[in-house]
Amino acid sequence: MRLGRGWLRAEILIVLGLSLGASAVYSLISLARALARGPLSQQSTALNPSLRPDPWLDLLYQLLAIGFDLVPVALAVLLLALTAGTLHRALLSIGMDLGRPWRDLAWGLALTAGIGLPGLAIYYAGRAVGATVEVIPAALDTHWWTVPVLILHALKNALVEEVIVVGYLFRRLELLGWSRRRIILASALLRGAYHTYQGIGPGLANMVMGVVFGEWFRRTGRTMPLVIAHTLLDLVAFVGYALLRDYITT
């Protein structure tokens, strides 16, 4: 199916408005408010908070939140299928198939190491110069289901970001005639923008991550290693903090 340029522009705005575009707007507003309150180094932000006081109700709401957050991913893939012809071809077009699992895993691990260590260095440097708020990766109360839910949150974040900001956005902007360099820049700026609620440092660090991931996709056409790397990065942050919280905060 051939889509007109007006349709494509409207489609992109709707998908981003339902997902990370909206997150970018709120994140920038959050950064502006934080800067107005005072030094960023004296402020904090909590990820993955408890949603309800009752443990079972909290579990239900956590699972519902994860499920609803994945709806824009499903929408993006279905829209790609309109032009690809089938759902399978749509997944192939962004490299989200299981055709090369071991190679994707190996590159995912390599990307994790290449992004994770510099990311930590930038975070602590940002804290040192006052450009980054304290990030609490896992604010969930401790239950038997805390670690499994954090794992699901990590996977959800990876799917939402890499499928929409890399795979979907690249393929749609290509149809609009954008150059690869321009697409990489737009994708990286968006990734940086929706992380600015953590401060200026994480925003810039994630923009650099966006450039690396965008260049990877330009060269390989595969998002699967990016999803693997992103999941592992969040797993280390979320689950590691949850397991070591008593030692870190004392």
Q: What share of residues is helical?
A: over 70%
- Overall mean pLDDT: 92
Distance between the termini: 59 Å
The total count of strands amounts to: 2
Strand content: under 5%
Structural class: mainly alpha
What do you see in this structure?
This protein has one domain (5-248). It contains 10 helices and 2 strands; from the N terminus they run ααβααααβαααα. With 250 residues, the protein is mainly α. It has helices at residues 5-17, 20-37, 55-69, 71-84, 87-93, 101-129, 146-175, 180-193, 200-220, 224-248, and strands spanning 44-46, 134-136. A two-stranded parallel sheet has the order 1-2. 38% of the residues are buried. 74% of the residues lie in helices and 2% in strands.
What brief labels describe this structure?
250 residues; mainly alpha; two-stranded parallel sheet; globular
Overview in brief:
This protein is mostly helical and 250 residues long. The protein contains 10 helices and 2 strands.
Can you lay out the helices and strands and say which pair or pack?
Blueprint: H1 5-17, H2 20-37, E1 44-46, H3 55-69, H4 71-84, H5 87-93, H6 101-129, E2 134-136, H7 146-175, H8 180-193, H9 200-220, H10 224-248
Parallel strand pairs: 1-2
Helix pairs in contact: 1-2, 1-7, 2-8, 3-7, 4-5, 4-7, 6-9, 6-10, 7-8, 7-10, 8-9
